[in-house]
Amino acid sequence: MREAEAEILRREAIEQELAVALSNNRRLMHTHVQVQEDERRRIARELHDELGQHLNAIKVDAVTIRQTERLPPEAHRAVLSIIDVTNHLHAIVRNMIRRLRPAGLDELGLPSAIENYLQSLRGRLPELRVDLAIAGDFDDLAEPVNITLYRVIQEGLTNVVRHANASCVEICLNRTRAMPLHESEITLTISDNGRGTPSPQDTRGLGLIGMRERIEALGGRFEVKRGALCGFLVSAWLPVAIES
Q1: Average pLDDT, consecutive stretches of 10 residues, N- to C-terminus, the chain (244 residues)
Q2: How far apart are CA 227 and CA 235, in angstroms?
Q3: CA distance 39 to 4
Q4: Distance of CA 132 to the CA centre of its chain
Q5: Of 226, 214, 239, nearest to 153 (Cα)?
Q6: Maximum distance among all Cα pairs of the chain, rounded to whole angstroms
Q7: In this structure, what are the phi and psi dihedrals at residue 138, rounded to the nearest 5 degrees?
Q8: H or E element: which one contains 173?
Q9: Which one, 113, 136, 199, 210, has least CB within 10 Å?
Q10: How many other CB atoms are there within 10 angstroms of residue 203's CB atom?
Q11: Bridging pattern class, strands 168-178 and 129-135
Q12: What's this model's pTM, rounded to 2 decimal places?
């Protein structure tokens, strides 16, 4: 009996240590994700304020030169080339800013930011059909929850494009009231009709690891398995407190 009681106490102590370690790990992951997003926000702001302004100045000068009377043909061609290159760089910078900081997330909210991203994706990949279904209220979510859900969708679609060889993707985002009543649960699924059951190498990919870390850092659950469309099914569950 003494040996059994000692073993029970020992296991209870180990379980407590594991629980503390898990809590500390989640806190570290949350801090890491927040630091990463703060850095992305800073870089996006610098790209917009610094590089964007200098590109505008170059284009304005080039347009002014183009309007000069009796401009030699060689100079005119060079000016047109400068304007084209500047426009191309502008497009690259806008895309970089969009990837660093979701367009409209702070001003318009999560659903609009997701739809904005999907419109951009459909423009670049018209052969890929992406269906989005959103149910529930997402207006009162904290910034870490918003950015986590957005990044998981972004990374999930990136994985589909790179690895799944799919023609159709379905995204479902749902928020429901849970027990106790002061909590709610957000469910996110991303399914595709791609190449089938994920291999161990697929499920250990850096993209999926990052998605899992983001969800678990907020106390949620994450899994990847075969989906109804015969491709990947990425699922995430995230508990969210309801403001009283």
Answers
A1: 81 83 73 78 85 90 89 91 93 84 80 90 91 91 89 91 88 82 85 70 63 87 80 89 62
A2: 10
A3: 52
A4: 15
A5: 214
A6: 104
A7: -120, 20
A8: strand 168-178
A9: 199
A10: 15
A11: parallel
A12: 0.71
